[in-house]
Write a structure and sequence with these properties.
The complex is a heteropentamer of chains A (about 350), B (about 240), C (about 250), D (about 325) and E (about 425). Helices cover about 70% and strands about 0% of the residues of chain A. Chain A is built from 13 helices and two strands; from the N terminus they run H-H-H-H-H-E-E-H-H-H-H-H-H-H-H. In chain A, strands 1-2 form a two-stranded antiparallel sheet. Chain A is globular, with a radius of gyration of 22 Å. Chain A starts with a helix and ends in a 26-residue tail after the last helix. In chain B, strands 6-7-8-3-9-10 form a six-stranded mixed beta sheet, sandwiched between helices. Chain B has a four-stranded antiparallel beta sheet with strand order 2-1-4-5, covered by helices on one side. In chain E, about 40% of the residues lie in helices and about 20% in strands. In chain E, helix 3 packs parallel to helix 4, helix 5 packs parallel to helix 6 and helix 6 packs across helix 15. The chains are: A mainly alpha (about 350), B alpha/beta (about 240), C alpha/beta (about 250), D mainly alpha (about 325), E alpha/beta (about 425). At the D-E interface, helix 1, helix 3, helix 6, strand 2 and helix 12 of D face strand 8, helix 7, helix 8 and helix 9 of E.
Chain lengths: ~350, ~240, ~250, ~325, ~425
């Protein structure tokens, strides 16, 4: 890792550690939710590495939240066991769902994942076991043994913030390493050309499933962290509206880089708080922002540096070289054929 | 001069598909482009019909520049393109396909007359007029595709691999049809073919394309026995 | 025993018969040319061998093992690797990464070892292999470029390198010479020979007859989904049926 | 007799807590035997109305997807705008009802055209981008509805036909529903005639089957896209306009509708208009019967699972007829 | 009609905020000191109908009180300021909002809708010892010492309507009921079951539907198939009451209808008929009802309040428009007794006597048997019926405690069967 990167990450973490003391009480809560959402979007991006976009991520987050809450409430399991189990159950659910879902690709996968997700979510509000539409209340908060202080109930925002920050950082580290390992490389390869990957022996089904399962594990962890902080969950919290927000965060941020979705969620969440005064108009801001990003940065905010670089380079080029003979040609037919990567269709 | 192409270049992404091609078509003429896969034959036709725009060079049709026009404008000027693989509309009936060929025309009565003419010309299509195009055989689909193009009453017809995937008997029939279209309707034809024998036999003039450039050109009869052609095809 | 045996393979799409009872064999160490006019069924046959399609009838044997109903990735694992028509690469990845993905089989790792860095040895092995292949294909100095920025010739070489990285015993090359000029073709031909000399059997689908005739010792000709002729280039060239199929007769 | 009823009642309520919905459906059909003729007939009448609206919504989605390849998430909001337009023109500003319905159709069509021109056209070939843009529109339209009508209670659209017609003893249907049903069916027939009998209709279908070949016939793809989007949006708006006197007119009313429309579209085959209409009818009956006999949640859950099943069986698209390679 | 000038002004103002110009929310500094009261409720989204009209009511209440000289506590005069936070009816947003109101705005009481948004707040509210109110007494439990349900004791008051019905129309023998499946609908189902059992009216059908339902034709069909004498709509949302009633009329129903609420009933009459709606029984009076001018009513000047509200915020009046203000009335009463605005002092003052002034008359602190804590204010509750002129009028004030004294066992039985007792809800 280059030195500059280490320094900047160090600075960011120093700021993150000091931050709660500079914040007002409700902003501390905001930070906790935001940090959890960072894990949600970054894990969602792992899915998109293989080129698939799902609409079930938030439901799997809910699965983690429900599992952990119910285990903690009904059999009194410790948070330290129920939380990872929440992740495991979400991952297992994803594994199970991968069999029907990965028969589909692209748009069909998107819609298929939406169908299963919504059916699962409706079952929470339908069956008493999950608490029905009211959901689960009075979810216990985690306890931690701190030397010198004894057993501590971690429910106040600052300690919980550090707990969340630690777990999410670990999650991010894992996701980062995974992406930069050969496995991540292979997932990326599947995204670009799944047939080529298959032809050199990559079992694309296996890798898609792996990405889905791991992403869901972290979504489940995120859900559990949320549940044990708020103390209550209900099916509406994990509905398609929430999913749409995750999708927006990820896409506005951009999926080309690890930090893209993080930029998306941080920026939009802060904007959302800033526009709280606008009350009824708040979603309008979202809508317009979304359209603007798609119009000017269709690959997300993280494509901005590259665009600027491109622009500079082009400017340099056109200054130095007479580019008249090299104007890039456009296959701008009136036809609606999408930009297939074909070369010479003869 | 009906069509004149001056040194056009076409790039897909950054790769050059055509590296400077020039050719000419006279009124009522029939020329052919032959060459192996990837030589740039289809790209040339797609560039003429406006599906692709050249990065360099000009295309003139009856003296007017058309290299920046969209396909519907090019068609209105009188150039019809029968694409590779037929590309008929599978969910429409044969007759609906044919009528769509005349989509740009406003002269309703003349369209009906031409429809009758095309159906006379292709009795097989009349038999299957109300059948879904997807249920037709390959040869019938090819006829439909040519018939559809004729419905726009073109001055110039671009034919891309009309014999592709067809059995020899059908190929023969298609060849006859192309000849008739050229002679009887007075339509100029640019024919792209793998089947060089067929193409050169029909045409007045031929161009042999190799990797985006014209390797050799000349009167079709002269090209027939040309070593260059044989080599391009069979590696002699 | 032949390296590859195609036994009575038929492939139907709906009502269309793309391959009709095709049988032939490829011996170890050959460069076999598979030719025929457009639409003859060459690509379909390739896809059947590589597992992207399943034959409707018939069997495909590789080293005596039936591979006709296996998944593409499994077939690749058994040593049958294909390249693609046109240039199919991981466009937005570097040359090095492209080949590294190709090494997938020789150094697979699981999630946990990848995370904990336990696969360091295998990782290094894969990287060594990648460098070796890049060296072999003469792509070493371009290893950090994005695939999409390479000139056509290098892109094709890279496609070959990706396939080679998977350590094939049988390489299926789909039109590697399409769109190349004479110089590029010549370079690609020598690369192909080098690959064969390194012990890889090659089946080549190609329209560029100079390349085919120059490379292949034996040709198989398909037309309308059926086997039309087989023989040495000279035999095939003289074969009246082949001439008719290509140049047409009227 | 009464005794039996009580059992049935207990069963209905406890149905919420039991897992085997299909089994329950069966049990309930048996339990309701004593009133079944009336109930089944009335439910069938209800189903027909539901079906026609499902069909209107689904046909629009299919048109837009077929021609432009875009999944329009804002389709439910176009429906909402249709309903709001009627409320605004008819209830708030005293236009005649039918004029207001036409007004709604025009307004929503214009919104559709605007969306095509400014948002979907630049996204051609980028389905995900189109989807995201439609979500942006969804937010904007919801906010506009809140701004136009305020929050609080639903907007009241007084039915212009307050009466109801008794079809059979105990089976009746409101005149408003009859009127809406007639218009909906009329529109579907008109659309079918347009698509199968007119040049423009053929052109539209041609573009959805092979847009490049269509361009080669001189069909302007941009114009056809606008036609499809205008028509698709217009039908959604009309559905909203017609249903406005019968449902909750509020900014979020499009939400539930879009899920149903997706189910119908997917199960019917996403490129197929006739498939969409057929499935809309079947699903309308299925949904209404399950809602009547078991519960709306179960109906929705089963609908989603049916959709999933169809996706599993035909995972790579249900596009009816496409050119084979 | 639709858009008023005020709306446009508001939109313009919001636009200004958006464009970054920024308008101070509380533009002019007050001369007197200010006391803040928080409202943490859904102000946007699908549940906003339960929050926003309440905010409008509270603002009117505050303006009235301030105009009359504010509140005098400990020798000082205070103005009242309502500080609101939109919790979007989401637990996490509710928690943030609650903290913001309490810790940063320094409010002296937080009013909430309750339900989904309460449990997340509970722990912190206890920790901060903050006086909080809810409209949903089902939030009460022994763990909520500082939470009051001082206005609505939903759904217990529904027994008064059924009681009145059974006395007025003894010929009614059967009832069919529908209810949405949520935290409002289910406890209400138990209450109606108990009330009908006491009234000896047989329940012949019960249809519990999903809150996302939009088409009520199938539900009404299945209800009417049982040919009931009475149709009971449970605690349906206002929009549901509207749609169900219209469906019932269209499917030829001619019997009685009883419901917990019937907001905006003129709209329903306009969609059905006066004749059809004649005799519709529910529990929420119009505030222009002259019967509200009786001596024992504690809501301050209800008729004028209603008139002013309608003028200010036309078309938005619902039950919450007066319910939150009535809580403010009670708070003012408590603060004046305590002579201090401090939350715990106010709470102590309020609970110091077994009774307190409820909007509809003096009521007692009650609830131990149902919620494990006596934090709900229960007394008389009006029974309202629509008359032949299409106007809702109070028929009587029924006494909830009197009913309870006789029939508590029945209610507890049904509550337990529906798993609504506080010990079952934890």
């Amino acid at each position: 890792m280059p030195f500059r990167k280490i320094i900047s990450i160090g600075v960011i973490y120093a700021a993150l550690l000091a931050l709660p003391f500079a914040l007002k009480l409700h902003q501390q809560d905001f930070m906790i939710i935001l940090v959890i959402n960072v894990l949600i979007v970054v894990s969602y991006r792992l899915m998109t590495l293989t080129g698939e976009f799902s609409l079930i991520h938030v439901v799997l987050m809910g699965a983690g939240a429900y599992t952990s809450s119910l285990l903690a409430k009904t059999i009194g399991l410790s948070f330290w066991l129920s939380m990872p189990l929440g992740g495991v159950v979400a991952a297992l659910l994803a594994l199970l769902l991968s069999f029907p879902l990965f028969r589909m690709k692209g748009f069909y996968f998107l819609i298929g994942s939406f169908a299963v997700g919504e059916a699962i979510r409706l079952s929470w509000s339908y069956f008493d076991f999950f608490g029905g539409p009211k959901g689960v209340k009075l979810i216990p908060s985690p306890h931690l043994y701190i030397p010198g202080l004894g057993m501590q109930d971690i429910w106040q925002p600052i300690p919980y913030y550090y707990l969340v920050l630690t777990i999410v950082s670990l999650g991010l580290l894992v996701l980062y390493r995974l992406e930069h390992s050969r496995i991540g490389l292979t997932m990326n390869a599947i995204h670009w050309r799944d047939a080529l990957a298959e032809s050199v022996g990559v079992d694309t089904w296996r890798y898609r499933t792996m990405a889905f399962v791991i992403a869901s594990f972290f979504a489940g962890i995120g859900g559990a962290l949320l549940a044990h902080y708020i103390g209550t969950i209900n099916p509406v919290m994990f509905d398609v509206t929430t999913m749409v927000y995750v999708l927006i965060w990820v896409i506005v941020g951009g999926t080309n880089t690890f930090y893209g979705p993080i930029i998306g969620v941080v920026l939009l969440s802060i904007l959302n708080e800033m526009f709280r005064e606008a009350e009824q108009l708040r979603p309008l801001v979202y809508g317009i922002l979304l359209l603007a990003v798609m119009r000017f940065l269709p690959n997300g905010l993280d494509s901005l540096p590259g665009k600027i670089r491109d622009y500079r380079r082009r400017k340099l080029d056109s200054d130095s070289v007479d580019a008249a003979g090299n104007a890039p040609s456009q296959a701008a037919s009136g036809s609606g054929q999408p930009s297939t990567n074909t070369i010479g269709p003869n | 001069m009906l069509l004149e192409i001056q040194d056009i270049q076409v790039h897909y992404n950054k790769v050059a598909a055509l590296k400077g091609i020039s050719l000419k078509v006279e009124e009522g003429d029939m020329i052919t482009l032959i060459g192996s896969n990837g030589a740039g034959k289809s790209t040339t036709l797609r560039t003429i019909s406006g599906l692709v725009h050249p990065s360099v060079g000009q295309i003139r049709f009856k003296g007017q520049r058309i290299d920046r026009l969209s396909p519907d404008k090019v068609l209105k000027l009188g150039i019809a393109h029968v694409p590779e693989g037929r590309r008929i509309f599978p969910g429409l009936t044969a007759i609906e396909n044919l009528r769509l060929g005349a989509f740009i025309r406003k002269d309703k009565q003349a369209v009906e007359r031409d429809l009758e003419r095309v159906l006379d010309h292709f009795p097989r299509l009349r038999e299957r007029a109300h059948q879904l195009a997807s249920t037709m055989s390959g040869g019938e689909q090819q006829m439909l595709s040519i018939g559809r193009a004729l419905m726009s009453k073109p001055k110039l017809l671009l034919l891309d691999e009309p014999s592709l995937g067809l059995a020899p008997v059908i190929v023969k029939h298609i060849k006859e049809i192309i000849g008739e279209v050229n002679r009887e309707h007075g339509v100029a034809v640019v024919l792209v073919e793998q089947n060089a024998e067929l193409a050169l036999d029909l045409s007045r003039y031929g161009y042999v394309l190799e990797t985006g450039s014209i390797a050799i050109e000349g009167e079709a009869k002269g090209l027939m026995g040309n070593e260059h052609v044989r080599r391009a095809y069979l590696g002699l | 025993m032949a390296l590859l045996e195609i036994k009575n393979v038929t492939k139907n799409f709906g009502g269309l018969t793309a391959l009709n009872d095709v049988s032939f064999q490829v011996e170890k160490g050959e460069i076999r040319g598979l030719i025929g006019p457009n639409g003859a069924g060459k690509s379909t046959l390739f896809k059947n061998i590589a597992g992207f399609y399943k034959p409707t009838r018939g069997r495909i044997l590789h080293q005596g093992r039936d591979i006709s109903h296996k998944k593409p990735s499994h077939i690749a694992e058994l040593g049958v690797v294909r390249t693609f028509q046109e240039t199919t690469l991981f466009q937005e990845m570097t040359v090095f990464e492209n080949v590294l993905v190709g090494c997938h089989l020789s150094a697979r790792s699981n999630v946990f070892s990848a995370l904990l860095g336990l696969d360091h040895g295998r990782q290094k092995e894969a990287e060594d292999r990648t460098r070796q292949v890049l060296e072999f294909m003469g792509l070493m100095e371009r290893q950090d470029q994005l695939a999409l920025n390479l000139p056509l010739g290098s892109q094709r070489a890279l496609a070959l390198a990706v396939a080679l990285a998977a350590r094939p015993t049988l390489l299926l090359m789909d039109e590697p010479f399409a769109g190349m000029n004479a110089e590029e073709t010549g370079h690609m031909m020598s690369l192909t020979r080098r690959v064969r000399d390194s012990g890889v059997t090659i089946v080549l689908v190609e329209h560029d007859m100079r390349a085919v005739m120059g490379l292949c010792g034996y040709l198989t000709v398909l037309n309308f989904g059926s086997l039309l002729a087989q023989g040495t280039p000279d035999e095939v060239r003289q074969n009246p049926q082949v001439i008719e199929a290509y140049l047409g007769s009227s | 007799m009464l005794e039996g009823n009580v059992v049935a009642v207990q069963c209905t309520s406890s149905a919420l807590y039991r897992p085997f919905a299909l089994y329950l459906l069966f049990v309930h059909l048996l339990r309701h035997k004593e009133t079944s003729v009336d109930l089944i007939l009335q439910t069938a009448v209800n189903s027909m109305v539901a079906s026609s609206f499902f069909a209107l919504m689904a046909v629009g989605l299919v048109l837009i997807f077929g021609v432009m390849g875009i999944v329009n998430f804002a389709h439910g909001e176009l429906y909402m705008v249709g309903a709001y337009s009627v409320w605004f023109l008819y209830s708030a500003n005293g236009w005649p009802f039918w004029l207001a319905v036409i007004g709604a159709f025009v307004i929503v069509t214009l919104i559709g055209l605007l969306m095509e021109r400014t948002l979907f056209r630049p996204m051609r070939g980028n389905p995900l981008g189109g989807l995201i843009n439609s979500i942006g529109v969804l937010f904007i339209l919801q906010v506009l509805a809140v701004q136009l009508g305020g929050v609080g209670l639903m907007k009241t659209v007084i039915p212009p036909f307050p009466g109801s017609t008794t079809i059979l003893n105990g089976v009746s249907i409101s005149d408003q529903r009859i009127a809406a049903l007639i218009v909906a069916i009329g529109l579907l027939v008109a659309m079918w005639l347009f698509l199968t009998r007119t040049r423009l209709g053929w052109a539209l279908r041609a573009v959805s089957q092979d847009s490049e070949a269509a361009a080669l016939q001189g069909i302007n793809i941009n114009r056809i896209s606008m036609l499809a989007m205008g028509l698709g949006a217009g039908t959604a708006g009309l559905a909203g306009a017609l249903i406005s006197p019968m449902t909750r007119v509020e900014p979020y009313m499009g939400h539930g509708v879009i899920i149903t429309a997706f189910i119908v579209t997917i199960v019917g085959g996403i490129g197929s208009l006739s498939g969409a209409v057929l499935v809309a009818v079947l699903y309308g009956f299925f949904y209404t019967f399950v809602t009547t006999y078991v519960s709306g949640t179960v109906a929705m859950m089963l609908g989603l699972l049916i959709m999933l099943f169809v996706l599993i069986v035909k995972p790579n698209g249900l596009i009816g007829v496409r050119a084979s390679e | 009609m639709g858009i008023t000038r005020r709306d446009i002004l508001k939109a313009a103002a919001t636009g200004a905020v958006l464009s970054g110009v920024g308008l101070p929310k509380w533009a002019l500094g007050a001369k007197r000191k200010t006391l803040k009261i928080g409202l943490c409720a859904p102000l946007t989204g699908e549940v906003s109908a339960w929050g926003l009209p309440g905010l409008y009511g509270c603002e009117l209440w505050a303006d009235n009180v301030n105009a009359a000289g504010g509140v005098k506590l400990g020798g000082k005069h205070y103005d009242i300021e309502i500080v609101s936070y939109d919790n979007e009816y989401l637990p996490d947003k509710a928690l943030q909002g609650y903290k913001k109101l309490v810790a940063e705005e320094g409010v002296k009481m937080v009013m909430m809708l309750g339900g989904d948004t309460w449990p997340g707040v509970q722990r912190w509210a206890n920790h901060a010892k903050m006086l909080t109110t809810t409209l949903l007494p089902s939030d009460l439990s022994p763990d909520t010492p500082y939470l009051l349900a001082p206005c609505e004791v939903h759904p217990i008051y529904n027994v008064t309507g059924v009681d009145w019905l059974s006395r007025k129309f003894p010929q009614a023998k059967t009832v069919a009921m529908c209810a949405q499946n949520d935290s409002l609908g289910i406890p209400s189902v138990a209450t109606y079951e108990a009330a009908f059992e006491v009234a000896k009216i047989k329940m012949v059908d019960l249809n519990i539907f999903d809150p996302t339902t939009t088409d009520f034709a199938p539900i009404v069909t299945s209800l009417l198939a049982k040919k009931p004498d009475v149709l009971c709509l449970d605690t349906a949302y206002a929009d549901f009451v509207n749609l169900i009633s219209v469906q019932a009329k269209n499917q030829g129903y001619k019997g009685k209808i009883i419901s917990c609420t019937c907001d905006n009933y003129p709209a329903i009459i306009s969609k059905t008929s006066k004749q059809f709606m004649d005799g519709f029984i529910f529990q929420f009076p119009d505030f222009d009802d002259p019967k509200l001018n009786q001596k024992f009513i504690n809501f301050h000047n209800p008729n004028k309040f209603y008139k002013d509200y309608i003028e200010r915020r036309p078309g938005t009046w619902t039950a919450v428009s007066w319910e939150y203000p009535s809580i403010l009335d009670l708070w003012k009463y408590g603060a004046e007794i305590a002579d201090s605005p401090e939350p715990m002092s106010v709470l102590k003052a309020l609970k110091s006597k077994p009774t307190a002034p409820h909007a509809f008359g003096t009521a007692e602190w009650w609830g131990k048997d149902l919620w494990g804590v006596d934090n709900a204010l229960v007394g008389n509750w009006p029974v309202v019926a629509i008359n032949a002129e299409g106007k809702a009028r109070i028929q009587e004030f029924g006494s909830i405690p009197k009913w309870w004294d006789k029939h508590s066992k029945v209610l507890i039985k049904h509550m337990r069967a529906r798993k609504q007792m506080w010990d079952q809800r934890a």
